[in-house]
Amino acid sequence: MESNGRGLSTLPLHSPPIDQIPKNELGDRYGMRSASALGKEWYEHSAGWCGYLKGKNAVEIGKLSADGTDADLKALCTVSVTDLQKATLKAMAEQ
After folding, report:
1. pLDDT of residue 19
2. Which of 5, 29, 35, 50 has the highest count of CB atoms within 10 angstroms of its CB?
């Protein structure tokens, strides 16, 4: 967003269609909060997932249960983590 000099924010003239903006960049506009068991938006679930991974290695991440039974993870993130887990492991392997 850009400021128009009057304290108002405007979208850039050539902004992409909303379905092409990543979920994290949409922020509260994604509209997940009301459907979330934790009352969180997508970016907040993502932050919970990332925080949960801190200090874990690839073996530990690979062993994480994706069925939602991990109470610590469930308190931070209730979205399906299967694809996030795969992406994380792929990124770690590419380092």
Report:
1. 82
2. 50
CB proximity list for 56: less than 8 A, separation 6 or greater: none
> Distance between the two ends of the chain, CA-based, in angstroms?
33
Using H for helix, E for strand and C for coil, what is the string for the chain? CEECCCCCEECCCCCCCHHHCCHHHHHHHHCCHHHCCCCCCHHHHHHHHHHHHCCCCHHHHHCCCCCCCCHHHHCCCCCCCHHHHHHHHHHHHCC
pLDDT tens digits for range 44-74: 999 999 999 999 999 999 999 878 789 999 9
Other CB atoms within 10 Å distance of the CB of residue 14: 5
Scanning the structure block, which residue is given the tokens 């922020």? 27
